[in-house]
Structures are given as structure tokens and as C-alpha cells.
Design brief:
This protein has 126 residues and is an all-beta fold. It is 0% helix and 50% strand. The chain is built from no helices and eleven strands. Strands 2, 4, 5, 6, 9, 10 and 11 form a seven-stranded mixed beta sheet that branches. A four-stranded antiparallel beta sheet has the order 1-3-8-7, with no helix packed on it. A hairpin with a 6-residue loop joins strand 4 and strand 5.
């Protein structure tokens, strides 16, 4: 059974850092494009970062570029999202997602992903 589980969310003050993790079970995560998305209350879900398996290409939304870093740990079947210099506008539920097509180049489009985790909440507030 394919499953993705996010962890690492929490509450942090502006300027702080969090590291989110996405752990996969039921499949080898390293073969697939993985994306991180977020959804703030009253807003649409948006793609913020992704990492490809074919060539290791990485993409970031402009809103997080320079502050967030995505990485893989294939040995642990995990993908991480290091979030630094957090702002109140980063407050959202964060989700990881996987394509079901091997070696696909990643994108920030929701429709390119087939499996989703349940989300982890991030709150940035003073």
C-alpha cells in the first residue's frame, strides 16, 4: 500500500526554521518525482518545491526561493524540506506528494501528482 506521511510541522516565531520530512512506504520514493505543497486557510493549494528522480532537478516557487531547500534521503526513503527565515505568510498545512510515473521530471502542478500525504501544520507567529 502506497503511503506518504509528513512530519516536522509545528509553531515557530518569524525568522525561525523547521525541517519537514516526507516518509514513503509501499514504494521506493527515489524513483519518483516528489513535490511539496501548502494550503493556507481560505486559499488554494500551491506547489512550493519539487525534486525529480531522473536528473535531480529541483524547482522552487518564487515565494520560498532562497529560504527553503528540498533534499532526498533515498536510504531512508524520505524527502526533506528545510525551511529557514520563516514568515507569517508561510503559515499553512504542508503536504508532500508523489508521481506514480518513474523518472518523471517534477513540476509544481498539483495535477502531476498521484499520491498525497495527510499534511502537517506549520504556524509562524510571534
Amino acid at each position: 500500500q502506497v503511503q506518504l506521511v509528513e512530519s516536522g510541522g509545528g509553531s515557530v516565531q518569524p525568522g525561525g526554521s523547521l525541517r519537514l520530512s516526507c516518509t514513503a512506504s509501499g514504494f521506493t520514493l527515489g524513483y519518483y518525482a516528489i513535490g511539496w505543497f501548502r494550503q493556507a486557510p481560505g486559499k488554494e493549494r500551491e506547489g512550493i518545491s519539487c525534486i525529480s528522480s531522473a536528473d535531480g532537478s529541483i524547482y522552487y516557487a518564487d515565494s520560498v526561493k532562497g529560504r527553503f531547500t528540498i533534499s532526498r534521503d533515498n536510504a531512508k526513503n524520505m524527502v526533506h524540506l528545510q525551511m529557514n527565515s520563516l514568515k507569517p505568510e508561510d503559515t499553512a498545512a504542508y503536504y508532500c506528494a508523489s508521481s506514480q510515473i518513474r523518472y518523471k521530471i517534477c513540476s509544481l502542478a498539483i495535477t502531476d501528482y498521484d499520491y498525497w500525504g495527510q499534511g502537517t501544520q506549520v504556524i509562524v507567529s510571534s
